[in-house]
Design goal:
Length: 105
Amino acid sequence: MGERELGGVGTKVLFENEYVRVWEMDLAPGEAGAIHRHDHDYILVILDGDRIAAVPEPDTGGEVTEYFEADVVIPSIVEMKKGGVETAKNVGEKRYYELLIELLK
């Protein structure tokens, strides 16, 4: 695959120190985040929404290797391993909102 520019794993960094980086992911219905790579293990804290999709890139190396769509359970916490190259897309009818906590150490 050719050169591509990767974005952040969320829409905005809320907090960072030597141990964690906390992002928010705030997506309107139909909106997608940037193509990004997960360089660290991370935790998702899902706070709002009704349906979300993960759209992996062909060269992804993470846990999600095929298009994945799911109903949102509020609240929920999901532990994920590093390595994926993907885009998050709100395929629901409500705003999707989560906190994504990257584990830096």
